[in-house]
Amino acid sequence: MMKTQDIQAIRALITKSRRWDIFFGVLGILALMLCVLTFMTLFVDMAIRGLGRIDAAFFTSFPSRHPEQAGILSAWVGSALVMLVTGLAAVPLGVAAGVYLEEYAPKHWLTDLIEINITNLAAVPSIVYGLLALGLFVYLFGFGQSILSAGLTLALLILPVVIVATREAIRSIPLMIREGSYACGATTWQTVSDHILPYSSAGILTGVIIGMARAIGETAPIITIGALTFIAFLPNAPFTGVPPAGLFDWLFAPFTVMPIQMFNWTSRPEAAFLINAAAAGLVLVLMTLAMNGTAIWLRYRLRKNITW
Predict the structure, then answer these.
(1) What is the pTM of this model?
(2) Is the bond preceding residue 92 a cis peptide, omega within 30 degrees?
(3) In whole angstroms, what is the distance from residue 36 CA to residue 23 CA?
(4) pLDDT tens per residue, range 171-196
(5) Residue 300: pLDDT above 70?
(6) Fold of 74-234+247-305
(7) Of 46, 81, 82, 75, whose CA–CA distance to 61 is shortest?
(8) Domain boundaries defined on the chain
(9) Phi and psi at residue 193, in whole multiples of 5°?
(10) Taking the mean position of all CA atoms in its chain, how far away is CA 22?
């Protein structure tokens, strides 16, 4: 039977531990609120400055030397087209690489080396990818300073993120799913296509959207490959113009993107251009939030349709 002194010592130890729990809980809340309040302050300030500038003409007008006439038509169209190329290049390749490394690749030193390099590539500065793309896509492959080069550059940038997210999502699937599938005589591909990918699709989608949200705000690699800071035309739509443009001619058209347009405006001395930059930044944030909102909705739908 425990003595009274022992019981009191245990109670004192528990009380001390609870105090530390409360302390770290409050510290965590303060850190979270600091980050949230900082973001909200910047976002509200940007919204107050730029919201009045956003109208239909702002989305349908090209950049101009006159701030009251300038718009973001070429910038948001360029961003959308570059993100389209980035998604089409990075998502299938990244998911396939993640599935191979997790389900097919033999476990030996070469696989370990590849895994280490993929993890390290996720932390490489974006300007390095821009220099790589400048030599590879622009000069070696001859794609030029085009939408295709920009999309492939950003695809390389987010590829490690997609691979790592795919592997983590696959690892979260219980082992009994695989064992049950193999016990029924299924092949590896049948197990992957019918069970692993459907069950891990929500996690994979989250990683894809995180990568795309990073790519849409990148500036350094896009500037490195030669994106224009001022462009007053759009790529020709397929089968339009004289002579008619081809189906994929827009891939090799010059371009600009939202971050570069914002950078161009913030470098101008006129205060009105700073208001334009704030409005463009607000649009860019809303585009990113829309991407994340779509991902959350798709993830909810996918998880709702999954039956374990």
Answers:
(1) 0.84
(2) no
(3) 20
(4) 888 888 888 888 888 888 888 888 88
(5) yes
(6) MetI-like fold (1.10.3720)
(7) 75
(8) 74-234+247-305
(9) -75, -35
(10) 35
